[in-house]
Structure formats: C-alpha cells, structure tokens
Amino acid sequence: MGSNTKGALVGLLGFAIFATHDVIVKYLGATYSPYQILFFSVMFGFPLVSFMLVRDASADTMRPRHPWWTVIRTVSILVSSSCIFYAFSVLPLTQTYSILFTVPLIITLLSIPILGERVGLHRGGAVLVGLVGVLIVVRPGASEFTLGHVAAFVGAFGSALASIIVRRIGRHERDLVLLLFPMLGSFLVMGALMPFDYKPMPLSDLVAVAVLSVLGFVALNCMIGAYKAAEAAIVAPMQYSQILWATLFGLLFFNEVPEERTLVGAVIIIISGLYIVLRESRKDVSENTPVLRTRSRIAAGTYFRIGPMMRAARKRKNKDK
C-alpha cells in the first residue's frame, strides 16, 4: 500500500470518528447548552493534552510572542466552538456540514488582508461558485432562516479566522501557546457562562462527554498520521466524506431526511473547495497555500488543533535523531 493511499484511508477514518463526535454533540445539544458541553469536554480533554506538556522539554515561557493575534484567535475559537455546537444541536447534520464546508472559501478571502495573498481568477471564481452553493442550501426568502443558520455561518467564519491566524503566527509561537490558550479560554469562559443555563448531568451523559473528548483525541491522532503519511492535497479532500456520514447518521439517529437542495448545494460547495485545494497544490500559484496548509479539521468546534501537535511531533522527532 502506497503512502498516499495509506494517508487517505487513515484520513477517512479520522473524519468518520469526527462525524461520530458530532453526533454526540447533537445528542447532548438537545438537552444542554453549548457552554456546558464545551466546559466538560475541555475539562476531560486536559488529561489527554497533559501528555504533550510532559513531553515538551522547551525552557521557553508560555508568554505569546504575538499577544493580540493570540487573543483574537482564542476569541475566534471560543465563538466558533459555541456556535458550531449550537448549530449541530438545532439544524440537520447535512445542512450544518454544508454551511461549515464554506471554511476554505472564507480562508481564501481572509488570506488577502491577513497574509497578503493574491487570489487570482481561478480561486476567486471558485469562491463565487461556492457562494452559489450556499444560496442553494440556505435558499434565503424561500425558507426560514433561523438562529441555527446564523450560528453555523458565524462558526465557519470564526474557524476560518482562527486557521488563517495560525498561518500568520504559527512559525513564531510555541506550539503549546497555540494549543493551550484556546483550551484555557474555553474552560474559563464556558465555566463562567455555564451557570446561567446549567442542567445537572446524569452519569450516562457525563460518560458521553468523556467519550466526546476521547473521540476528538483519537481522530486528531488519525489526522496527524494521515498528514505524515500522505501529501496534504490527498488528505485534505477526505474531510468532505463527512457529508456521507452526516446523511447516514441523520437518518439512523435523528430521522433526518436530507433535502435535495441541501445535497445539491453541498456538492457545489465541495467542488469549489476541492478546486481551491487542488489549485493551491500547484507550484507558483500561491505563496502561502492557506487552505492546503490548514490541517486543523474544517468545522472544528473542538479544542484540539492538528497543526500545533504536528509541529510538536516533528520537533521531537528531529531531537531524537
């Protein structure tokens, strides 16, 4: 089995686990606020991430070198996490994923002012095509536009902004700064907001939240393995397999029958995103390849970030040589 094939298969497995993770989010979201789910999922995630802390031998401080960008990124992750969790709880899975698949389109647009990227006719045209797909999914004026739709769009924008900031400051910041600041922010902010809509959780639901954290961690490591084994242009498109899982899980667990327009719009958005990824993989097209280099899961409402942990793994490997 070739390395690209292996990477693609491991990537498919990782995104399948992420989709299972999102099913639990939707299940819990029917009863609990996004703040409560995020608070406990981050709390259960700290022991898992502590292994990374133990293995980090750097004597550097945790003070960020780019404090304002770090603050903006942390706020973006907090807002996007809450919004994405809420969107999963109130919208059909296929519709939520369709909107969240716009993240590559938003990253492409944000790369112009933040990275100084030049977006030519091809990628700009792909963005416009993707927006047509969004209009087909949402169909403004012809169907009800709910708070869930707003949350999904805000979540997509926040996720894209957080990803593009990593592309700007990731080379200069410690990986633990990129990883832990959003986690600490989520723990403190969600903990402060949780009492306003707190509901006692039985043991079964606490176990579900713990499983949520474990699934996120396992899927994260699958993605790290996939990107190590295969080229980014091979692994990145695997994320769109989540629309298949969303359709299946929606039917099995939530009696959601996807509307034809949602699937048509999703296909258009996916095609535009794939075109941007393939376009950026060509030489001399993009200096920064912002979408292609965004290794964190698109539509990630969770606290785990793939990029920082990949860089930390590479550093440990280089030290061992």
Please describe the topology of this protein.
Blueprint: H1 3-29, H2 34-55, H3 67-90, H4 93-100, H5 103-115, H6 121-138, H7 147-169, H8 175-193, H9 203-229, H10 232-235, H11 242-254, H12 260-280, H13 306-320
Per DSSP, the total helix count is: 13
- Low-pLDDT stretches are none
**What is the alpha-carbon Rg in Å?**
19 Å
N- to C-terminal separation?
A: 26 Å
* Element pattern in H and E: HHHHHHHHHHHHH
Structural class by secondary-structure content: mainly alpha
Largest sheet: none
Overview of this protein structure:
With 321 residues, the protein is mainly alpha-helical. It has one domain. 49% of the residues are buried.
Nutshell version of this structure?
With 321 residues, this protein is an all-alpha fold. The protein is 73% helix and 0% strand.
Key traits:
globular, mainly alpha, 0% strand, 321 residues
